Amino acid sequence: MNKTVTLKLLNPVLAVLLLNQPLSGLLYSTFDLEFFEGLHIGGGVALLVAAAIHVMLNWSWVRANFLQPRR
C-alpha cells in the first residue's frame, strides 16, 4: 500500500480517535468504569500509535518545513 492510500485510511481513523478522547472524558459518568477505561485509555493509546504512524509517513514534510535552517 502506498503512502497516499495509507494516509487516506489513517486520517479518518485519527479524526475518530481524536473525537473519542474528549467525548469519552465528558461522558465518563454515564459509562461503567471498565468500559470507560477501555474506551478512553485504549483510545488514547490507539491515538498515540496512529499519530506516530502519521508523523512517520509525513516525516519528509516535517523535515522540510520545520527542521531546515531559515534563509
Structure characteristics:
single chain; 71 residues; mainly alpha; 3 helices; elongated; membrane; DUF4405 domain-containing protein; transmembrane helix
Q: Sheet bearing the most strands, described?
A: none
Distance between the termini: 36 Å
* Average pLDDT over all residues: 93
- The geometry reads as elongated
Query: Helix proportion of residues, in percent?
Result: over 70%
List the domain count as a whole number: 1
Q: Which structural category do the helix and sheet elements fall into?
A: mainly alpha
Describe the structure in your own words:
This protein is mainly alpha-helical and 71 residues long. The protein has one domain (3-66). The protein contains three helices and no strands. It has helices at residues 3-26, 33-57, 59-66. α1 (3-26) runs antiparallel to α2 (33-57). It is elongated. It starts with a helix and ends in a 5-residue tail after the last helix.
Structural topology:
Blueprint: H1 3-26, H2 33-57, H3 59-66
Helix pairs in contact: 1-2
Question: Can you summarize this structure?
Answer:
This protein has helices spanning 3-26, 33-57, 59-66. The protein has 71 residues and is an all-alpha fold. The termini are far apart.
